[in-house]
């Protein structure tokens, strides 16, 4: 066996581009460096940051920038690791419309939809908790307006419970919950129409819950009344809950503000079983839209 290293000043074991070679019976053995192989690039020059990939003819290796494969998901979706594979559509970026849509996938079975939680970081030792800030865009023209912060709540049907904005201090033993909801009703006759504010079924605490409703009503059509007939109301009440969970009015309902084009329209609170309802009453042959904004505050969350 005849093994020996070959070297020369420029390309040997001791030159600036030193590459060790071995011979076996006079035949050069393969090089021990990547660039000296017969099916790889011969130099690293100009290839900084690139990766080795199989070439187009699948006959060797070459350098490429990497990241040129097909991305997962639909266009403008940010994907995530779903059990070792791309999955989900949790964030959509609509560049043409200027929209970033943070969307939780719809429930795949019957039941409640999936929740989305955005949580600031907790403090460490003695620091402050992390803030969550919503900053709308600023208008640039002399007649432009700044962007709005919009919370859109879904009301599946006129009789269904609408989503609400809930604020709480989340303190064990002394929690406070402030609920805010908006919605609408319609009437065409003098028959009252109701909207469920909350249901105390299963609640054994005594409450109490303070309610305030602000209502705007407007006639849209009909053979009765006059075009653009309108009304406005502010009503307040406080309900406690007895041991069986039935709401009980404390004192009386206060109508603090009432204005009406047609006498006989009305807005008030009523109780039906374990539910506290907003009740509105229009007039015969009047198609009326009722829009309302309701606030209620108490020591427990009730829906």
Features:
single chain; 303 residues; mainly beta; 3-stranded antiparallel β-sheet; 17 strands; 0% helix; elongated
Q: Shape from CA axes?
A: elongated
Poorly predicted residue ranges = 1-15
SSE run: EEEEEEEEEEEEEEEEE
Strand content: 35-45%
- Briefly note the structural class of the backbone: mainly beta
Number of strands: 17
Average of pLDDT: 79
User: What helical percentage do the residues reach?
Assistant: under 10%
Spatial gap, N to C terminus = 90 Å
Rg on CA atoms, Å: 36 Å
Task: Please describe the biggest sheet, giving its number of strands, its sense, and whether it closes into a barrel.
Answer: 7 strands, antiparallel
In DSSP terms (H or I, runs of 4 or more residues), the helix count works out at 0
What does this structure look like?
Among the domains are: 1-43, no CATH class; 153-298, no CATH class. It is elongated, with a radius of gyration of 36 Å. The chain has 303 residues and is mostly beta strands. The protein has no helices and 17 strands. The chain has strands spanning 23-24, 27-28, 51-54, 61-64, 77-82, 85-94, 99-102, 164-168, 177-187, 193-199, 209-221, 230-241, 247-249, 254-260, 266-272, 275-281, 287-298. Strand 5 and strand 6 (85-94) form a beta hairpin.
